[in-house]
Write a structure and sequence with these properties.
By secondary structure, this protein is an alpha/beta fold. It contains twelve helices and 19 strands. It has helices at residues 12-24, 43-55, 70-76, 90-98, 114-126, 133-148, 167-177, 183-201, 239-248, 295-306, 321-330, 358-363; strands at residues 2-7, 28-33, 61-66, 84-86, 104-108, 153-155, 160-163, 207-213, 218-224, 229-235, 253-254, 256-261, 268-274, 283-287, 290-291, 311-319, 335-341, 344-345, 351-352. The strands form four sheets. Strands 6, 7, 10, 11, 12, 13, 14, 15, 16 and 17 form a ten-stranded mixed β-sheet that branches. It has a five-stranded parallel β-sheet with strand order 2-1-3-5-4, sandwiched between helices. 39% of the residues are buried.
Length: 366
């Protein structure tokens, strides 16, 4: 059986022990990280990575471990298609499979000893989901999930890409792809799509309650709680997305990174960088319409990290699998937001079907 296993720093020791145990039982083990018990690691990063592999079918089952198991359980159950169960004894583990069809086992390293964790794991692996009333109940959950959960997360071998499938974005994207779309319309549409994508990339901004006086009476409302943001376009095509995002997030500061792709080697060459002085305190959105080979995007992320950036996301209009794999491999903690994950790159490094050269179409230079 293909089993993915992941943990934060608190669960690292138990993860290593269970990896050996699972291998001895004859299972194939995919270690999703973290890879050290010494350095602090946030459980959502590694829990999502493991849960997404189960949801995508790249692993038959998953095992996630943190200090109490609670954080990993909450995290994994946010992923569509995952039934994660926090278990502290063999009976619960067995029933989580037989009654609930749990495909992810969650353990608490600080509440469960190593020997008990192994016996819980064995009981869970040996059990199979039952039919009848239990199947009917599980189907009610999956039916509700299908009606209410957004299908916007796809996985790659090394990480995840968030594909924003809102109908307005997909409609406008089809017009942008059309080779007959004028420069003006292309420019306007790129800004509009970027603005629509801004709703998704800012989804997790924290809120705080505030008092508001309406024309009728006082009311309780919400405001973004002082979160510092930065938008960093990769020159030149990235400029086409900035205004659209700033219309939604007007207080974000803007930095710039100048990179171009050598036409012969297809490798990125940098020539300019200017970032806000407090870049290390900000959530950073690096924007570039096309994620092709991933070389420029990866280089831009590396450059921002060197200058103190820590919380980084990449926002692209269209992505190729090769580019996603490159960025996810080099920077596994970076979330990639895109409106489309296309088929492949051609021999010239262009995304297929793509939309051609975004910079040339944006500025009318070809």
């Amino acid at each position: 059986m293909e089993i993915v296993i992941g943990s934060d720093h608190a669960g690292f020791g138990m993860k290593e022990d269970l990896k050996r145990f699972l291998s001895d039982l004859g299972h194939s083990v995919d270690d999703a990280g973290t890879f050290s018990g010494e350095q602090s690691a946030d459980y959502p990063d590694w829990g999502l990575k493991g849960a997404l592999k189960v949801a995508s079918g790249k692993a038959e089952r998953g095992i996630l471990i943190c200090g109490t198991g609670i954080g990993m359980s909450i995290t994994a159950n946010k992923v569509r298609g995952v039934f994660a169960a926090l278990c502290a004894d063999e009976s619960t583990a067995r029933l989580s499979r037989e009654h609930n069809g749990a495909n992810v086992l969650v353990l608490g390293s600080r509440t469960t000893g190593a020997a008990l964790a192994r016996s819980i794991t064995k009981a869970w692996l040996d059990a199979e989901p039952e039919g009848g009333r239990h199947l009917s109940r599980r189907r009610k959950i999956t039916s509700w999930e299908a009606q209410t959960c957004r299908e916007n997360v796809e996985t790659t071998e090394n990480g995840r890409v968030i594909v924003i499938k809102h109908p307005l974005i997909q409609h406008k994207l089809s017009i942008v792809r059309d080779k007959n779309t004028s420069v003006k319309d292309f420019r306007d549409l790129l800004q509009e799509i970027a603005g629509l994508m801004a709703y998704e990339i800012s989804r997790n901004l924290p809120l705080e309650e505030t008092d508001v006086e309406t024309p009728v009476c006082s009311a309780r409302g919400f405001s973004i709680s002082g979160k510092k943001l930065a938008v960093v376009p990769v020159l030149r095509a990235g400029l086409g997305m900035v205004e659209g995002i700033l219309r939604i997030i007007p207080n974000a500061k803007v930095g710039h990174i100048g990179l171009y792709r050598d036409p012969n080697t297809l490798q990125p060459v940098d020539y300019y960088c200017k970032l806000p002085n407090d870049i290390g305190e900000r959530d950073i959105f690096i924007v570039d319409p096309m994620l092709a080979t991933g070389g420029s995007a990866s280089a831009a992320i590396t450059h921002v990290k060197r200058l103190g950036g820590r919380r980084i996301s990449l926002v692209s209009l269209i992505s190729a699998p090769e580019g996603v794999d490159k960025v996810s491999s080099d920077h596994p903690e970076v979330a990639i937001f895109t409106a489309a994950l296309d088929e492949r790159l051609n021999d010239h490094g262009y995304i297929v079907p793509g939309l051609g050269d975004a910079g040339d179409r944006l500025f009318g230079t070809k």
